[in-house]
Amino acid sequence: MYASREDIGYDFGDDSKVGSKPIKPNPNIDGGWAWMIVLSSFLVHILIMGSQMALGILNMEWLEEFNQSRGLTAWVSSLSMGITLIVGPFIGLFISMCGCRTTTIIGGILNALGWILSAYASNVHYLFLTFGVTAGIGSGMVYLPAVVMVGQYFQKRRALAQGLSTTGTGFGAFLMTALLKYLCTEFGWRNAMFIQGAISLNLCVCGALMRPLSPKDLCEKYVVRSDSEENRAKALSHSTETIKSNGVLGEEPEKKEEATNEEVLGSVQHVEIGGKSGGGRSMYGLRLLKTVSQLTVSVRKGFALWYSSYFGAASLFTNRVFVAFIIWALFAYSSFVIPFIHLPEIVKQYNLSRQNNVFPLTSIIAIVHIFGKVILGIISDLPCISTWNVFLMANFTLVTCILTLPLMQTYVGLAVVCALIGFSSGYFSLMPVVTEDLVGTKHLANAYGIIICANGISALFGPPFAGWIYDITQKYDFSFYIAGLLYMVGIIFLLIQPCIQKKQPREKPTEEAQI
């Protein structure tokens, strides 16, 4: 369908400063400490996404404890899952200012606090605030950096690395379900949430493992990418050169600002050296002023990068393919979540509970989902295979399964469709790779934050919408049909935009762009 995954991408000037001198690759790129980053991200997916997939255990306990309606109680889990993804763009701001390591550690503390405070809940509305909002925001502050760091440390094997790290979701679904079921049986749901909060503090350890790459290391990664893709990359965007020139023009104020900040810090250091005879209080005040100045500089630079990604000359929204990617994300995730929520009820309606108790259909999805992520990641990393094409084929398979599932009324038929859903949904591991190909590593945090925000909206409203359709029609068939058709609309947007980009004439590169 398309020659290569680079054919869909914008360059946002990431490689504009690459020189012609060969630079020795950093051993931590695609190896060394990079695999520790994969391990850290794997554990994050177990503790965050795995726990959310196991919230059905706690949902049953909350129904018995508070005697509220199923719809109201289910919003606790929906809020936690939705907010984890919806806060993505704002977490991108934290990453720009503080870095992935600090953001993850703060998020781990916030997530643990949400679990612990929820153990003292007196009603469902209390859980909305403590578990839905507090733990949800903390989860979002951990999840996004875990994905971004893998993208920064890998170039040649990005899809495989993302696939391995995101398999933690499937493993976590099994581990956390068994753990929460055991803890609730032995100690009650309140103590179970308290213990789970203590376990969640291990997210801070995962954050400590996220050692940031130096600017020199990132530059070396860009050189490797430029050298390996020099003969293949043919940008579809007719405005690539314009974006590059905007980036060059935008660098001058930034350089001036940096020079001004350095002058301020230098003057503080000069006064500090010259005022050593002034006593301890003045020295302490000068050090405090220096710290505040450095913090101010970091915040201003981080906010400037975050703001320019959304509203600046090189805004992410000037990339039409990326905008189509956002529209796709608004419809896609609900098609994966809806079967997890409503399959048990469908099995009950078809009188298949006995077979489902032996081997639940949701477990089939989770198990095959693990293999799907790894296998699709390996296939995408092959030199002759386009990640974009693999991504589209997996989406076509998934939407076909969603539309076909209501037609299956036997356990074997449902099991086959669920297995295909689990395998094709392995494309989730390719989403960070496709996003990075679209916008570049520099904008990955903000761009992927937008994508998971759209996924969060889909996860928040998808299952309740399916339940509302069931209340009207007394069938789940139309819920899957409507979700599948909306999903197909998103896929069509992904197909149309690259074709439009190809038809647009390319401008002649300027001397500045060639340099």
Q: Can you describe what's shown?
A:
With 515 residues, the protein is mostly helical. Helix content is 77%, strand content 0%. The protein is globular. The protein folds into two domains: 27-217, MFS general substrate transporter like domains (Growth Hormone, Chain: A); 310-502, Up-down Bundle (Growth Hormone, Chain: A). The protein starts with 33 loop residues before the first helix and ends with a helix.
Number of domains: 2
C-alpha geometry? globular
How much of the residues is beta strand, in percent?
under 5%
Radius of gyration: 25 Å
| Helix fraction by DSSP (H/I, runs of at least 4) | over 70%
- Structural class label: mainly alpha
Mean pLDDT: 75
Number of helical segments? 21
Poorly predicted regions: 1-23, 222-260, 502-515
In CATH terms, the superfamily of the largest domain is: MFS general substrate transporter like domains
CATH class group of the largest domain:
Mainly Alpha
**First CA to last CA: what distance?**
32 Å
Order of helices and strands: HHHHHHHHHHHHHHHHHHHHH
Largest sheet, described in full? none
CATH topology of the largest domain: Growth Hormone, Chain: A
Counting DSSP E segments of at least 2 residues, the number of strands comes to 0
Q: What's the CATH architecture of the largest domain?
A: Up-down Bundle
GO molecular function: monocarboxylic acid transmembrane transporter activity
Subcellular location: Membrane
Membrane topology: Multi-pass membrane protein
InterPro entries: MFS (IPR011701), MFS_dom (IPR020846), MFS_trans_sf (IPR036259), Proton-linked_MCT (IPR050327)
